[in-house]
Amino acid sequence: MEENKHFTIDWTNCRLCPRECGADRTRGFGACKVGNTITAARAALHMWEEPCISGDEGSGAVFFSGCNLGCVYCQNREIALGHSGRTITQDRLCEIYMELQEKKANNINLVTAGHYLPIVIESIKRARKSGLTIPIVYNSSGYEKVEAIEALDGIVDIFLPDFKYISSEMAARYSNAPDYPEIAKRALAQMVKQTGDAKFDERDMMKRGVIVRHLILPGHIKESKEAIRYLYETYGDQIYISIMNQYTPMPGIEKRFKNLGRTITQKEYDEVVDYAIDLGVENGFIQEGETAKESFIPQFDDTGL
């Protein structure tokens, strides 16, 4: 057993995430496709986050292997399924944070770390005692228990969750998670409660706050509009909304989901962005150019581990 604040973890009967799979992760894998020892696939300066996260120097991104959501279109599928990565100790994880800080990273960006939550929390605490001073970013699918987010109070400075779906039907079809909308809504509410209003430094780098990402899927413009409407009507300018056009079809996806076999069109993207502007969204980010390219996806080759 490991305990942090209000959150207790039993690795032999894991109910860490909303899947509550009950797996014995000391002996095998949970719904997240990994056990109870940290596996990561990359730790390096990452230039492709929102401008206030990456800046000119880059975000210190640590890409963890495994994922509890398993979207059919995942562009990081190689690591999400646990097929790539190297097992590292908590000591090594602390060293990685410090190395990224020495490389002038603007923050430590924990990418899909929720299934290792107790270990990650302790690693941050230890690194701070060793001189880690840059903000901590929690980069998440949004499919998180409220208790997990509460356990990150005082640990995480910036939340960077997805808000993938507003409808249970789409969440069930593409992520086998019909409860995603309600789970993500509750998790986001807690994130906003813990961070309060966004704060930036003199270089316009975010020091505290919430940026919610929404990836537009081809042929699902109505879903995107409804998701953005919910976010803005619920939180207004208290959060930043990042509207993403980078959907990248993975090989063979069109055999199962024909509409997902293409990128979104400029017309589709413009329609969603115009809708957000008409709603009154001012605190937001949009993507320009052809971001849906292989080069946009990092190399998961154990760099920096």
From TrEMBL:
[4Fe-4S] cluster binds at C67, C71, C74. Its cofactor is [4Fe-4S] cluster. One of its GO terms (molecular function) is catalytic activity. The keyword Acetylation does not apply. Keywords: Iron, Iron-sulfur, Metal-binding, S-adenosyl-L-methionine. The keyword Cell inner membrane does not apply. Binds 1 [4Fe-4S] cluster. The cluster is coordinated with 3 cysteines and an exchangeable S-adenosyl-L-methionine. Residues 54-282 form the Radical SAM core domain. It holds the Pfam family Radical_SAM. Signal peptide: none annotated. PANTHER family: FORMATE LYASE ACTIVATING ENZYME, PUTATIVE (AFU_ORTHOLOGUE AFUA_2G15630)-RELATED. This is Radical SAM protein. It comes from Anthropogastromicrobium aceti.
